[in-house]
Design goal:
This is DNA repair protein RadC. It comes from Zhongshania guokunii. Keywords: Hydrolase, Metal-binding, Metalloprotease, Protease, Zinc. By secondary structure, this protein is an alpha+beta fold. The chain is built from 9 helices and 5 strands. 46% of the residues lie in helices and 16% in strands. Strands 2-1-3-4-5 form a 5-stranded mixed β-sheet, sandwiched between helices.
Length: 224
């Protein structure tokens, strides 16, 4: 049955207008993005198949262009549209953090870090440089690779903070393995960064670890 023949309160678009986007399942949201199905399948049916094929919405959104376009019903145009949606989400969250102190909106900070780091297939170590009101000056990935395997230089973080006249920082990195628990290396590098910044009277507010849908705060665990 085509979606237009469904009861009005079950159609994804009408349901979103009546109850808000949060009321929709992943397949319904994806169906709105797809707009149309394929022969013999509604947009919702196609969306469900794509989510199973890719292993969920997160994996679909993180798929490479080649992988994405191999799926039936998708192509370059949809890939471009999806990447634009993802980037708009990132910029929206960044703007939220620029307009008010990061800890006045802890949820927005976590969502921003998830948007930036969750899909990375390699480990990325990034810094949020903050002004004296703890508003976001700049988000910048600095180092790539595992904490043990790649060089994370506290002096480089400190140098960049001085260039930007930052008063405080939040550092963050992802665990592509999906295991969010901070490692001993995470704790050690946090201590080194904090000590380097203290010499410059710059505060390290937190070190966040992103893994899958989780964001772990070392500050909340008393490790910063």
């Amino acid at each position: 049955m085509a979606i237009r023949d469904w009861p009005a309160d079950e159609r994804p678009r009408e349901k979103l207008l009546q109850r808000g986007a949060a009321a929709l399942a992943d397949a319904e949201l994806l169906a709105i993005f797809l707009r149309t199905g394929v022969k013999g399948k509604s947009a919702v049916d196609l969306a469900r198949e794509l989510l199973v094929e890719h292993g969920g919405l997160s994996a679909l959104m993180a798929a490479s262009q080649e992988r994405f376009c191999r799926s039936h019903g998708l192509g370059d145009a949809k890939f471009v549209q999806l990447q634009a949606v993802v980037e708009m989400s990132r910029r929206y969250l960044a703007e939220e953090l620029r307009q008010r102190p990061v800890f006045a909106s802890a949820a927005a900070t976590r969502q921003f870090l998830l948007a930036q780091l969750r899909q990375e297939v390699r480990e990325v170590f990034a810094v949020l440089y903050l002004d004296n009101q703890h508003g976001l000056l700049l988000y910048e990935p600095l180092f790539y690779g595992t904490i043990d395997g790649a060089a994370v230089y506290p002096r480089e973080i400190a140098r960049r903070a001085l260039e930007l006249h930052a008063a405080a920082l939040i550092v963050a990195h992802n665990h592509p393995s999906g295991v969010a628990e901070p490692s001993d290396a995470d704790v050690r590098i946090t201590k080194r960064i904090r000590e380097a910044l203290a010499l410059l009277d710059i505060r390290l507010l937190d070190h966040c670890v992103v893994a899958g849908p989780e964001v772990i705060s070392l500050a909340e665990r008393g490790l910063v």
